[in-house]
Specification:
Elements (H helix, E strand, L loop, with lengths): L1 H17 L19 H8 L16 H5 L2 H4 L4 H4 L25 H8 L2 H7 L9 H5 L19 H9 L2 H6 L7 H6 L2 H7 L9 H5 L19 H6 L3 H9 L1 H7 L8 H5 L10 H12 L3 H8 L2 H7 L8 H5 L19 H6 L25 H52 L2
Helix pairs in contact: 18-19, 19-20
């Protein structure tokens, strides 16, 4: 039935071409064939059963194409399938040249060619990497502003998730970062986007771009380490402004490879609310990955001991040092500077005084330069402890020896008495 319809359509197309003035030249020579119209193509491709020899459907729904951005713009089938314009025989060959989006979207395709997806395909390392149709569709492409579009802000996660949320594709494509879509769904950004439907919540392209997606190791990438604060700052403008004035921001600006950026503390895809207890406790460990000595001394204090038990209702790192505006203690802006430390302590300890604030929350008993009094007090206490245990250890050992001697003497006396009684007549 499909073959019969193809023949009828082809016959009609050929007759139409023959009836067209200029089809045959004055000397009977055939001129260039007339390209088929969209209606000519849809005469076959609108059939729900239209398929290739391998069974793959090639159906194009007229109403779907008509409602697409290309259909609305009056784009013809041959504008994308250019080799059809040179074909005189129909049905046409089963395999056509791929549609070249660059014919119209040259700048966009050039941007894509610079990205990681195109690089992966060119290197033949990952032939599953996304192409134009994977993200935009083929005959049903809609503008990004259309809520039904695959590239609409609220649908992009689903579109990217077809690859980055598919374990089989992740494995086949050797995507090292793994399933980031599931992580993002549970993040504060993902919940705002999916559950609340907030169009201001960031989605994939807000951080990674759309066509020129680059690896995080590329200095031009929006997720390159030094560029991350600026990327986050597109939304968190006030916070990133504070961050650049902090000691961390200044070190990043000076190309320090160790200074933390946004993702160092908040992660990239699994970002949580900063006011929940779990995150407050976890971020202490994040601070400790750089400030190893400080986290060690903090854990020895009352504050640290309480957090180790899973409670966050005591002073954490950010409560004393701030979060995005951290500066050295010598800076008057610092929350632990001599001019502000009392006020910092008063946030929890309402009756705090200057004497109270002299307490060293990171006191190290082995650091004489930082706190000589603590150092010598610790030495004295250790010597006292050793002396007490040594004295009573020796005392106990001698007492055990004396006890053993007394027991031996007692047994000897008992045996002597028994012997004397036995010798009597």
């Amino acid at each position: 039935m499909i073959r019969f319809r193809h023949l009828l359509s082809s016959a009609a197309l050929v007759l139409g071409c023959l009836a067209t003035p200029g089809w045959a030249g004055p000397l009977g020579q055939a001129s260039a064939p007339k390209p088929p119209s969209n209606d000519d193509c849809l005469a076959c491709h609108s059939d729900p059963g239209a398929a290739r020899a391998n069974g793959r459907l090639v159906t194009v729904k007229p109403e779907q194409f008509g409602g697409s951005v290309h259909g609305q713009a009056g784009v013809a089938c041959v504008d994308c399938h250019a080799d059809l314009g040179k074909t005189a025989e129909f049905p046409h060959a089963e395999k056509l040249a791929p549609a070249q989006c660059a014919t119209c979207h040259d700048k966009t395709v050039a941007s894509y060619d610079h990205g990681v997806h195109a690089q992966a395909r060119r290197s033949h390392v990952n032939l599953t990497a996304a192409t134009c149709v994977d993200c935009h569709g083929s005959h049903d492409i809609k503008p990004a502003a259309d809520p039904e579009s695959r590239t609409h802000h609220l649908k992009l996660l689903e579109t990217c998730g077809r690859c980055h949320g598919d374990e089989a594709i992740i494995k086949r494509g050797n995507i090292a970062i793994g399933n980031v879509v599931d992580l993002f769904r549970d993040s504060i950004h993902g919940r705002a986007l999916i559950r609340s439907g907030l169009s201001v919540a960031p989605t994939c392209t807000d951080c990674h771009n759309s066509h020129d997606i680059l690896r995080k190791t590329d200095a031009a990438s929006r997720v390159f380490r030094k560029t991350i604060p600026a990327t986050c700052g597109h939304c968190h403008e006030g916070i990133v402004r504070d961050y650049w004035t902090s000691i961390h921001g200044q070190q990043v600006h000076n190309n320090s490879p160790l200074a933390p950026v946004c993702t160092s503390c908040h992660t990239a895809h699994a970002i949580k609310r900063a006011d929940v207890e779990g995150w407050k406790l976890d971020v202490i460990n994040e601070c400790g990955t750089c400030h190893e000595e400080s986290i060690k001394t903090y854990r020895d204090t009352f504050h640290g001991q309480v957090t180790a038990l899973g409670y966050s209702r005591v002073a954490l790192c950010a409560d004393c040092h701030g979060s995005h505006t951290i500066v050295p203690k010598s800076d008057p802006r610092s929350l632990v500077s001599s001019a502000r430390v009392v006020g910092t302590c008063k946030k929890c300890h309402a009756g705090a005084t200057s004497s109270f604030a002299r307490y060293d929350p990171h006191g190290d008993p082995d650091n004489r330069e930082r706190n000589p009094f603590l150092f010598y007090t610790s030495k004295f206490m250790r010597m006292l402890l050793f002396g007490v245990f040594a004295f009573f250890g020796i005392h106990t050992s001698l007492w055990f020896g004396r006890e053993a001697q007394i027991k031996t003497t007692r047994r000897w006396r008992q045996r002597s008495r028994a012997t004397r009684k036995g010798d009597r007549p």
